[in-house]
Amino acid sequence: MSDLNDEHDGRDEHDGYEERDGELHDGLLEEELRQAAAILDPVPAELRRIAVDAFVLHDLDARVAELTFDSLVDGIPVRGETDPPRMLTFRTDAVTVDVEVTADGLIGQLLPPGPAGIEVLSGPRAHARLTADDMGRFTGEAPPAGPFALRLRTGREVVVTEWLRA
Description:
Layout: H1 2-7, H2 15-40, H3 45-56, E1 63-70, H4 71-74, E2 86-91, E3 96-101, E4 105-111, E5 116-121, E6 126-132, E7 137-141, E8 147-153, E9 158-161, E10 164-165
């Protein structure tokens, strides 16, 4: 009688094996699809480099400064001005960074004012290292042609701006 109950309790002794076989099958199928995609539609080398660079630059202690003003988007065009400077404002709870980007370089100020080390990032290494004076003012060469961000190191914290194109 117990044999009869075992056969009809709704469980099969092979259920555990079928589940593991299904996971193995799914894993093998996923690997085959990855290989096919790598051959038929590979990730462009430049995109892979950018992704790796972005991961390398990830700083767990850094606060991200949100872009709150960009003159390309929020500004009013000035009549007769052919190449106006780009005005950017980034904010965190504790720091505001105002930056003017021109073909000649960067001009910026931190609020509240104070000294800071600033790195212009363009990949895994800093493109340029700048210093903000006691009034929070800094200047530097033009940012790189590709995407760039600023990393600020004040005495209190590390702040990284969103990535932009010059």
